[in-house]
Design goal:
Length: about 270
């Protein structure tokens, strides 16, 4: 569907990548995807974003699930080309339905459907409407509300994200959708901290680096916390969000933490709670 090409176009449009980085990214796309590509963060006047490029390969569903557990919103990339969309949306073998169900099951609050490769269909309004009706009906049937789903026409290869070639489309642009995601309410500092941990790596310095998502409370460097189910105490040495050190992180934020007092990464399996 051109997902990773579109990911590169988004980072370029936000100014996160220059033309050279974008060209290098396109050159590397011939290799099979097996890992989540993680952007260190994009800051705009409206929002601070962390973008994750999830493998579309059906064999990488666990990787996709780990990334979706961190996400507030999902960009579901589909191809406007007839045979490609029909194959992906096939009721028996298409991965599109599985990805949508996975997103809903792991708590995604909204979905932006990027109908990609619009250049291939001459920015046809009829084709866009056909895909919107078919996929929109399915997304609503699995639990996404009418206001939770937005369809936008794009072409990642040419970098056309503003739909300037689609004057008939007036219901939002991709970059605007990304910077206006409805987030959970403000964190209440008095509530106990809960961080769902998704990955742990032992650093050469001896501290444990973990990635996760703040589900409750506010986390700051210097806090003493308990790890479950390990039942061990540790100290938060540093908190990073959007690729930089921060003094605190609250509800819904994806974070990287440095923890002191934990023996080994194997002691903190995916799904542990801080």
């Amino acid at each position: 569907a051109g997902k990773s090409v579109l990911y590169g176009a988004i980072l370029h449009a936000f100014g996160r990548w220059d033309a050279r980085a974008l060209a290098r990214h396109k050159k590397e796309l011939g290799t099979e995807e097996t890992e989540v590509r993680r952007c260190c963060g994009v800051e705009t006047k409206k929002a601070r974003l962390m973008l994750l490029d999830v493998p579309g390969n059906p064999r990488c569903v666990p990787e996709a699930g780990r990334a979706l557990a961190e996400a507030d919103s999902v960009v579901l990339v589909v191809s406007a080309k007839g045979n490609e969309f029909d194959k992906a949306f096939d009721e028996r073998f298409g991965p599109l339905r599985e990805h949508a169900l996975l997103a809903k099951g792991l708590g995604a609050r909204s979905v932006v459907v990027a109908v990609n490769k619009m250049d291939e269909v001459q920015w046809s309004e009829a084709r866009f409407s056909e895909i919107s009706a078919a996929l929109g009906g399915f997304l609503h049937s699995v639990g996404f509300g009418q206001d939770d789903v937005t369809f936008v026409p794009v072409d990642g290869l040419s970098g056309e994200l503003a739909a300037s070639k689609a004057p008939w489309h007036t219901k939002g642009r991709l970059l605007d959708c990304l910077t206006t995601v409805q987030l959970p309410g403000p964190s209440i500092p008095s509530l106990p901290v809960r961080v769902l941990l998704l990955e742990a790596v032992k650093e050469k310095t001896g501290v444990l680096s973990v990635e996760g998502r703040v589900e409750c409370g506010t986390l700051s460097p210097g806090q003493e916390c308990m790890l479950a189910p390990l039942d061990a105490t540790c100290t938060v040495q540093a908190v990073r969000a959007s690729g930089r050190n921060v003094t605190s992180a609250g509800l819904g934020e994806a974070v990287q933490l440095l923890l002191q007092g934990v023996g080994d990464a194997a002691d903190v399996p995916r799904g542990s709670v801080l």
